[in-house]
Amino acid sequence: MSVHSEDTRKVTTHRLWEMKQRGEKIAMLTAYDYSMAKLIDQSGMDVILVGDSASNVMAGNVTTLPITLDQMIYHGKSVVRGITRALVVVDMPFGSYQGNSKEALASAIRIMKETHADAIKLEGGSEIRESIERILCAGIPVMGHLGLTPQSINKFGTYAVRAREEAEANKLKEDALMLQEVGCFGLVLEKIPAALAKQVTESVQIPVIGIGAGPHVDGQVLVAHDMLGITQAFTPRFLRRYANLQDTIIEAAQAYIKDVKSCDFPNEKEQY
Ligand code: KIV
Q1: pTM higher than 0.85
Q2: Domains and CATH numbers, the chain
Q3: Does 188 contact ligand 1 (Cβ within 6 A)?
Q4: Among 29, 30, 48, 162, which is best to mutate for testing ligand 1, by the most ligand atoms less than 8 A from CB?
């Protein structure tokens, strides 16, 4: 039996909603470039997230804050060119939506027009309600993101588990209901207690995708470079590695160096 969907139709926000209704889990993974997106789409992935984690894994920044709207659009365009089936969601970068809802709409429109992605994702709850509503009014599908929101790392001061305290957990539950009420099609919950994620998932009809939020959510998301074992230093408890590409890549590069230095490459068949 195949582990992924045999359905080759393009995934839509409505189909994600149907998956939640019938209890079918949703698989979501990041991609930032054409080649990787093409491979991940071929795997049968439901959702591909052009995450602002590109700032870390693509550009080597310490946080997601430095990545710009132009850079996210570049990554979004590259990914969309590689996709036939998965729903593509592009992260709105830090500074492109928080302060002013008109600017938020302008940023979201640029992402949709220039990348041809299916939806955008942004971080936060009641503080950015006006921006979310304005973007939704333009017919742009919005995915929320609550819990550990990396764009607020300087406010949090730590990447520790969020919403362990009652006040923060209550605010998160209210924000999740608000995101559903205004019309978001889905929600990411990052690094919160599994019991809280379960409560939130059961309280809303929209799909809830977890990362470090336990098993009682409607789907899971990971950063591709982490689960493929390309990144090295990042080892949170929630990360399961499905490959060790760092060793594969280093060993292949070393074998190439050896062959070049020893004049084994190129051989007679590898020349004109
Ligand atoms: O940017 C990203 O990769 C994300 C996921 C961690 C959910 O937002």
Answers
A1: yes
A2: 13-241 (3.20.20.60), 244-272 (no CATH)
A3: yes
A4: 30
